Amino acid sequence: MQNEVMNVIMTAGELLLTSGAEVYRAEETMERMGKSLGYSVEAYVTPTGIMVTVAKDGYFLTRIRRIRSRNQDLGRIAGVNQISRELAMGSLTLEQTKLRLQELRGPIYNTFIRYFAVMVASACLTFMLGGRQYELIIAAGAGLIAYLVDLLLSRFNANPYLRSFAAAFLVANGVYTVRSFVPNISMPLVTVGGLMILVPGVAMASAVRDLVQGELLSGTSRVVEAVAIAAALAAGSAVAVGLWRL
């Protein structure tokens, strides 16, 4: 029984951390779920690892899990939080909780919806910056290219900095190529709109929340990671622009 409780708590913590949740949220959720199941839980979470001890009646079980990849998925975070609340209210059993958490491992939205959302977001961002007509269409395509490049390289376990650099480089090159046929478009508006979906804004917000909660190690490391990804995006765009201006 203690092993099953540990597995459920570890799964919840891993889902939260790999989806971009703050470390204090992961710790509180894991401890709350353990308490709801009648166990004492002590959790220590960093952006790259989870350490948990589950105790009851003098028996202790400790596990460590390495987290090697992270992304941003607010829907999955909300799902884990909802499961935690239902468990605390007594609406879920241990087995039901396990099944609900396993369901969250799969994609929440299908491929078409994700692609469509990326294109709409890129076009809307360009529109907010002052883009019009063809610029919105080109920005939507640029955003889709950036997303697909990032997704493809992630499947080859490429680090986020390389993925960001490659996506920015290809998007900037693509926009310059399109500009050869549509000379009136604004390069900065289209490029920024296409790359904005990869800007780690949510990660930066999570880092600030960790710092406010006193999680200095996690907050600082996440700030550095977010800045490094933003720098990779800028570097990829700059290299492409430099090549076209030679």
Please state how the strands of the largest beta sheet are arranged side by side. 1-2-3
Q: How much beta, percentage-wise?
A: 5-15%
Tell me the count of domains: 2
Q: Which structural class best describes the helix and strand composition?
A: mainly alpha
Oligomer, anyone? single chain
- The general outline is elongated
- List the total number of helices: 10
| Unreliable spans | none
Gyration radius (Cα, Å) is 21 Å
Largest sheet: 3 strands, antiparallel
Total strands: the figure is: 3
What would you say this structure looks like, in words?
The protein is mainly α and 246 residues long. The chain folds into 2 domains: 2-104; 111-244, no CATH class. It is built from 10 helices and 3 strands, in the order ααβββαααααααα. It has helices at 2-18, 23-36, 74-88, 94-104, 111-128, 134-155, 160-179, 187-195, 201-212, 216-244; strands at residues 40-46, 49-56, 59-66. It has a 3-stranded antiparallel beta sheet with strand order 1-2-3, covered by helices on one side. A hairpin with a 2-residue loop joins strand 1 (40-46) and strand 2 (49-56). Helix 6 (134-155) runs parallel beside helix 8. The longest helix has 29 residues, at 216-244. The radius of gyration is 21 Å and the shape is elongated. The mean pLDDT is 88.
Write the layout of secondary structure elements.
Layout: H1 2-18, H2 23-36, E1 40-46, E2 49-56, E3 59-66, H3 74-88, H4 94-104, H5 111-128, H6 134-155, H7 160-179, H8 187-195, H9 201-212, H10 216-244
Antiparallel strand pairs: 1-2, 2-3
Helix pairs in contact: 1-2, 1-4, 2-3, 3-4, 5-6, 5-8, 6-7, 6-8, 7-8, 7-10, 9-10
